[in-house]
Amino acid sequence: xxxxxxxxxxxxNDLIKLSRIDGRENLNEINFINSVADRLGISRKDxxxxxxxxxxxxxxxxDDMYQLMMQYHRLIxxxxxxxxxxxxxxDFCTKLGLKMKLKKEAINEIIEKAVDTxxxxxxxxxxxxxxxxxxxxx
Length: 138
Hints:
Largest sheet: none
Strand content: under 5%
Number of helices: 7
Helix content: 55-70%
Shape: globular
């Protein structure tokens, strides 16, 4: 398997884990994950396999900062898609961001923006601004 495919499967696995963290996958979460899989070119068969073997999928984040930002944005959108952000979801996104080697300050700011936004979803532009502030000299 090529690295890009592995990164995509890993990202979908992270989304699946996040959707299951509160003990209930709602239709909006399922539809969002299906939509992400479609955009990434991952078949429903492969997505079903990831869901079935979620605990066996190897974590493989991209090296590219832009791709990391896009993946983290999708996580944040999924976290707020049901308009309820649980402590477990916040903790998961924080830990995953650190595992992705994102700066804790950037992670915290992004999550706080999502929590403070009435619909709990922030735009990719908002995340880009945060990333730019923390990574412009990196």
